[in-house]
Amino acid sequence: MSRPGNDAAALHIDTSKPHPARMYDWFLGGKDNYPVDEAMGRQMLAVEPGVPVMAKVNRAFMHRATRWLAGQGVRQFLDIGTGIPTEPNLHQVAQKAEPTTRVVYCDNDPIVLAHAEALLSGTPEGAIDYVQADARDVDAILEHASRTLDFGKPVALSLISLLHFVSDEDGAYELVDRLTGVLAPGSHVVISHLTADFHPEEARKVDEMYRKNTLTLAPRNRAQFAAFFEGLDVVEPGIVAAEAWHPELGDPIPGQEDIISAGYVAVGRKP
């Protein structure tokens, strides 16, 4: 298990503008955020008060998908766009089901690197590693991940709340194609993604906020989301709102009965 370096250059954190991962942390009730993140978060709450519940519902989907995959015999996970650690983390869910599970996390946010020790504390029988890299740097991610994961065997690729921060022009679909292309048959792809389909007016206002802060936001409709799974077999219950994906595998989030989440989720299997 390798430990990432915590040199000063790597840990430079820009607090001059809000950051999506830190805002997500604030919505989840975390403490790894700054006033600029909270300020934009409160602006979003003025538009859609249910955002914190939506964030927790999205996180809960990741937990349920991980449990489901572990039940299918998946023992390797590559989680890109990890975000700030919020327990239980993916490896804790997976290794609870099977202690020998191997997990590689990837993120380009220095604040995630600062908390990588929390991500790297797993079972003695398993293995965990962390890659600091941009999601679009596929070669670097795969080269590093291959030290821990055997890509000749099934891997679960987790892209939770990542792709709506990658525009079509920046190669969102090419990114997924390149990653799934190296996966062995029997691998799975897990995606949650922001959409404007459920809350169009609120989504328009949030998009304006992101643009004003020079942040990329690319919510996609159902057809655009489905295109990420081209060539994969989407498992039941198919493409649904986050709260509707195998709810029996986890506990409901308080308040979720009063909202429709703002994203689509799905899990695809590589034939």
TrEMBL record:
A Gene Ontology molecular function term of the record: methyltransferase activity
Q: Name one Pfam family in it.
A: Methyltransf_19
What is this protein called in UniProt?
SAM-dependent methyltransferase
Q: Name one GO biological process term.
A: methylation
Which lineage? Answer: Bacteria, Bacillati, Actinomycetota, Actinomycetes, Kitasatosporales
UniProt keyword annotation of Transferase present:
yes
Superkingdom as given in the UniProt entry: Bacteria
Record key words, sorted: Methyltransferase, Transferase
Source organism of the structure: Streptomyces clavifer
